[in-house]
Amino acid sequence: MHVVLAGGGTAGHIEPALALADALRRQDPAVGITALGTERGLETRLVPERGYDLELIPAVPLPRKPTPELITVPGRLRGTIKAAEQVLERTGADCVAGFGGYVALPGYLAAKRLGVPIVVHEANARPGLANKIGSRYTRFVAVSTPDSKLRHARYVGIPLRRSIATLDRAAARTEARAAFGLDANLPTLLVTGGSQGARRLNEVVQVIAPALQRSGVQILHAVGPKNELPRVDNMPGMPPYLPVPYLDRMDLAYAAADMMLCRAGAMTVAELSAVGLPAAYVPLPIGNGEQRLNAQPVVKAGGGLIVDDAELTPEWIQANVLPVLTDPHRLYEMSRCAAEFGRRDADELLVKMVYEAVAARRQG
């Protein structure tokens, strides 16, 4: 069997695709896997690093919403659809699994023309244009939120890296805290605004850090590689405040933490829910509001808090986050609720869907 993955552009599209690739290979080491990408996407680095074949096709940016520009898309797509068709024919593709982004729509349209089965995965609560169109061509549609409006949607969650999906936070806590130089027994707040950091979160945390430390809370804070590290004066006997540019072992960071302050990207919400780490979510205030929609289900389930970016202040953290961190029973309950909501097996469920789609085509 050969599966073509269509999910380039951002890590939010590529990481779930690669998690599916890994799961397919675990089930059948002989399965062929090719990823579609464009020369400007992160896939040019991430896909080869993981050992998978990458085929580049021309990039055709899509409008996020129906606009007059949408009329020009079919013409601009013609060449890139043809390029995608050539990849499907050359690899003998049995299935196209799409994850949204620039390459998904040409992948879907090429597959439809050639009669290749399609599987769609939508990571966000508010689906993008490519997946809205792709979901019209298949009944094999996987989504990350239980109340998705996509046609034929099945709630499976988001395929995660194995280091996250198999993480036992309690078992790894001692090792993780030692790795970061944290105290083994103090309540721990993890802060990150994503791979590039978030200025708003950084500024607020730097102000509130001394008060949290005085209350017995230690802080591990990834500020982002391009942001300046705050000057910290850790007084003897005080819980540590550890700012770092970047965290390359998020599994250890999750294991070290009792709670997280973060944005609400789909992948972040899925990972924290899967490992049972409660969070205070601060949705990105720009875009189409999808980050708030991503976080709302787990917050409603009791596994987190949510606050608007404009309302995130040192006082809000003092009034809302500190009481959770210093209450072991409440931490335990929020962790349990997050874990009950989260899905660790999305990669395996998506593998089953790929095999279903292929079998349906062969039977049909």
From TrEMBL:
Residue ranges constituting the Glycosyltransferase family 28 N-terminal domain according to the UniProt record: 3-141
InterPro entries: GlcNAc_MurG, Glyco_trans_28_C, GlycoTrans_28_N
Domain Glycosyl transferase family 28 C-terminal: 188-349
Annotated localization: Cell membrane
One GO BP: peptidoglycan biosynthetic process
EC number, UniProt record: 2.4.1.227
Pfam families listed in its UniProt record: Glyco_tran_28_C, Glyco_transf_28
Its job: Cell wall formation. Catalyzes the transfer of a GlcNAc subunit on undecaprenyl-pyrophosphoryl-MurNAc-pentapeptide (lipid intermediate I) to form undecaprenyl-pyrophosphoryl-MurNAc-(pentapeptide)GlcNAc (lipid intermediate II).
Entry similarity comment: Belongs to the glycosyltransferase 28 family. MurG subfamily.
Alphabetized NCBIfam families for the sequence: murG (TIGR01133)
The protein's name in its UniProt record: UDP-N-acetylglucosamine--N-acetylmuramyl-(pentapeptide) pyrophosphoryl-undecaprenol N-acetylglucosamine transferase
